[in-house]
Amino acid sequence: MPKADSPVTLPVAELAPSKSPSVPCENLDAAIRAARQRFVARNPNSGKLFGKAAEYLPGGNTRTLLYTAPYPVFMKKGEHYQVFDEDGHAYTDFVGELTAGLYGHSHPLIKKTLIDTINNIGLNLGSTIAQETAHAKLICSRFHLDKVRFTNSGTEANLHALAGARKFTGKRKVAVFSGGYHGAVLGFWDGVQENGVDQDDWVIGRYNDAGLAKRLIEKDDIGAVLVEGMQGAGGCIPGTKEFLMQIQESAKKIGAVFILDEVMTSRLGPSGLQAIVGLKPDLTTFGKYLGGGLAFGAFGGREDIMAVYDPRSPGSLAHSGTFNNNTLVMHAGFTALSEIYKPEVAVEFNRVGDSFRTSLQSVSKGTKMSVTGLGSICGIHFSQNGQTEISSRESIEEDMPLKDLFYMELMENGFWINKRGSMALILGTPQSELDRFVECVESFLRRHKSLVSL
Ligand SMILES: Cc1ncc(COP(=O)(O)O)c(C=O)c1O
């Protein structure tokens, strides 16, 4: 695993894994009940904090994904590749802040950049700053964009990319795919957009169905296609080359703007997943780790499309955002991409991720568990019917209780993972921790053989 930064020696994990049950549990309900009892006994401080949080936040929560029953673990701090909870347990962090935490929790170069920025520059200057050009130039050259714009999140990046595409084509309808997630108001779970905006403007296809994508896109009223090269929140399901190329071709044929959402996937290689697959999207959206660990988003691509945002042109689109170019993120993001996540680091990091996933696939072979993903991003699945070929959200019925048990027991082994089953590696995680995770998964599958057998 490439180090977060070569001169730094990362501390060996002082994990406090508790003993997972050594007696095989044959009954899933009983196993979950027992795991929950152990959870409550292990995490009394989180329980108290949750009680307080629920007084002021609905469900004690301000980010739905982080809610878990009976209550979530409250983390107290993070260091390098580890997080530490309020009850004194240490975990190797495999959540990796859903891909944004690539550099870990205390990378010295990012820390230095943030402190220097605070000391020497100041926080919010309310003006254009030279550093935004530096970061824009770096992102344009790394991801082959003509022009780029910054936002505060991946959600905003997609909303602005869509607004730009609509302005450019004069058409409102957008083709998207079931299981796609493009931000807080842009989730298309099970073919339906919930909690969303522009409700009537979506045409929703099935992921990895190239024939259907062609039929849906090649219509007169489609102004844009928005797709992830690998569905992240939808289960870390990679798009096939055939599917993604079909989208590109169909969009081109009718003059629709092809927007590739690389908010998660741009870390999969030096120039993102698009370079690996050979795609040339009209616009690409970004976020997560490209802000160096701070709130960030960006969208960019073709000169003629991005020109709709040029304020020198009459009738241009407005693009607001108080913090779009804030000093901290412009400096931290630039340091992170130019000095830490260099092209060769990206290649090696994702090679390690591929080998980690292959090991997980190997130990879970012949069980209800399967592992999807690409490079440094993995998705853990447990299927109800033994389906282990996963090409779309519809292609698998997840066994949620089994997933729940996995989540709770792996946490007891000292691994911070999320209930959804998505994992994003952090730079500098020791190989021994990757190996230990694989061993613990193998032991989980052995321990619960009767529950996970096909
Ligand atoms: C593919 C994709 N697009 C967009 C977003 C939204 O990014 P943000 O949470 O920064 O708004 C996410 C977040 O997980 C994502 O995975």
Automatic annotation (TrEMBL):
Cofactor(s) listed in the protein's UniProt record: pyridoxal 5'-phosphate
Keywords from the named record: Aminotransferase, Pyridoxal phosphate, Transferase
Superkingdom classification of source: Eukaryota
InterPro entries for this protein: Aminotrans_3 (IPR005814), PyrdxlP-dep_Trfase (IPR015424), PyrdxlP-dep_Trfase_major (IPR015421), PyrdxlP-dep_Trfase_small (IPR015422)
A molecular function (GO) term: pyridoxal phosphate binding
UniProt xrefs under PANTHER family: GLUTAMATE-1-SEMIALDEHYDE 2,1-AMINOMUTASE, GLUTAMATE-1-SEMIALDEHYDE 2,1-AMINOMUTASE 1, CHLOROPLASTIC-RELATED
Recorded family membership: Belongs to the class-III pyridoxal-phosphate-dependent aminotransferase family.
Protein name from the UniProt record: Aminotransferase
Source organism per UniProt: Hyphodiscus hymeniophilus
